[in-house]
Design a protein that fits this description.
By secondary structure, the protein is an alpha/beta fold. Helix content is 39%, strand content 12%. It has an eleven-stranded mixed beta sheet with strand order 1-3-2-4-6-5-10-11-9-7-8, with helices on both faces. Strand 7, helix 8 and strand 8 form a beta-alpha-beta unit. The two termini are 22 Å apart.
């Protein structure tokens, strides 16, 4: 499949049809998605209408936009007007939003063609896409393995060449971790850089929408389209994000990069550490200075996250009560109906996190758990700020391991540990991205993570492109 950048250029030039590109995407999905299960719903009618509009614009001598005719998949926790939006949960099965998320409008205004909604861990709670109410997604690189999560369907859709681009959401690593396991690029932007309006919330102070792509240039192209201030999102940053695409090839000469000690320690597989060290060497060869750096508070990130995120989830998910929309199970009274609806509608992992979060917020425990977790969050942000006084960027593994077998991690704690490298950036609100860098001992993809200070995405993308270029020369 052509890159998004190349495909859009060909369509704008009239050398290729947007309708044909959409049909190729659907044919590829039809040929393999029964095996992968990346998609929950295909938006064929909407896609063909969008593609026809792009072709008409080109024929009229107009520019349809930087993503002209590019097929894109959307994680099924982003509202798409008139299309099923389920969060992979029975409690929203069949619900069709009356409005589009801001990112959907921005994609379509840029000429993108939305082909479908992708599978995820229910309400984005998981690291393997095994927690979907509609069945797991499989890793296109090895279908006995998980694609990561919670945005596993979006990562798999790109890795399987169903689409050149997709969108996911990242609360604790849910874009970067599946990107690493599927061997694609995944970006978590700065908190507030991309509008969350129309994203069905898991943890509102952590959630952020970002792109998956085959390469760094395509990811930059997509991020530049979807970012920017949105008055409908109270957390949207008024300052415009510096465009990433114009400087993506500027290199890393003179950059100072820190390799995080605590994320290169016990619990990270040896082959992943080896690839990350090779990535550091590649950046040195490209002209950067790389040194080890200690950020001690990162070791507490996992514990803090699994108090803060469930606490916010317990509040956000209270709206799913069977009264106004979604699944409903009748009861003798309102209280009985609420209990029956939520018991039947939510899966085990969602119930687990709601109970954990409600406990952490309860009287007598708030200060001991939630309050303390927030203080740890502040400590992590402060230590990152100190590190960035010396370094332009930071580097670490993305995932502790390559893709594991479906069903191999039935213990919730084992799955939670999959996000140990990615969670600190969410707690700090900083951007980070995963770039494929070779393979592990099992032949499966390894991702390395580039981390940056708030709103320094352009610099982050330059390092990511340098790593991508170096990875092309690896055996």
């Amino acid at each position: 499949m052509s890159s998004a950048f190349e495909l859009a250029a060909a369509i704008r030039a009239g050398e290729q049809s947007a309708v044909a590109a959409a049909e190729t995407s659907f044919d590829t999905i039809d040929g393999r998605d029964e095996e992968i299960h990346a998609f929950l719903h295909l938006t064929k009618q909407r896609a063909h209408a969008q593609a026809e509009a792009v072709d008409k614009a080109v024929a009229a001598g107009q520019d349809p936009g930087p993503l002209a005719g590019v097929p894109i998949a959307i994680k099924d926790n982003m509202c798409t007007r008139g299309e099923p939006t389920t969060c992979s949960s029975k409690i929203l099965e069949g619900w069709r939003p009356p409005y589009d998320a801001t990112v959907i409008g921005r994609l379509e205004a840029a000429g993108a063609v939305i082909v479908g909604k992708t599978n995820l861990d229910e309400f984005a709670m998981g690291s393997s896409t095994e927690n979907s109410a509609f069945g797991p997604t499989r890793n296109p690189r090895d279908t006995s393995r998980v694609p990561g999560g919670s945005s596993g369907g979006s990562a798999a859709a790109v890795a399987a060449d169903f689409v050149p681009l997709s969108l996911g959401s990242d609360t604790g690593g849910s874009i970067r971790q599946p990107a690493a396991l599927c061997g694609v690029v995944g970006v978590k932007p700065s908190y507030g850089a991309v509008s969350r309006y129309g994203l069905i919330a898991f943890a509102s102070s952590l959630d952020q929408i970002g792109p998956f792509a085959h390469d760094v240039t395509d990811a930059a192209l997509c991020l530049d389209v979807i970012s920017g201030h949105d008055p409908r999102d109270a957390t949207s940053i008024p300052t415009a994000l510096t465009p990433t695409l114009p400087t993506v090839n500027d290199g890393v000469a003179g950059m100072r990069i820190g390799l995080i000690d605590e994320l290169m320690a016990d619990g990270i597989d040896d082959d992943v550490i080896a690839r990350t060290n090779q990535a550091a060497e590649a950046l040195i060869a490209a002209g950067a200075t790389v040194e080890r750096v200690s950020i001690p508070a990162t070791i507490y990130g996992l514990a803090a996250y699994y108090l803060i995120a469930p606490a916010e989830a317990s509040s956000n998910l209270a709206r799913f009560d069977g009264v106004r929309y979604g699944h409903r199970v009748d009861g003798q009274n309102v209280a009985a109906m609420n209990v029956a609806t939520r018991s039947a509608g939510f899966g085990d992992e969602v119930k687990r996190r709601i109970m954990l979060g409600t406990y952490a917020l309860s009287s007598g425990y708030y200060d001991a758990y939630y309050g303390k977790a927030q203080r740890v969050r502040t400590l992590i942000a402060d230590e990152f700020a100190t590190a960035y006084e010396k370094f332009d960027l930071l580097l670490s593994p993305t995932s502790p391991s390559t893709a594991f077998e479906i069903g191999a991690k039935s213990d919730p704690m084992a799955l939670y540990m999959c996000d140990v490298c990615t969670i600190p950036s969410n707690l700090a609100g900083h951007p980070a991205m995963s770039v494929p860098f070779g393979v592990g001992d099992d032949g499966l993809p390894v991702g390395v993570q580039v981390l940056a200070p708030m709103l320094e995405e352009a610099k982050m993308f330059r390092a990511a492109k340098a790593l991508e270029d170096a990875a092309k020369g690896m055996s």
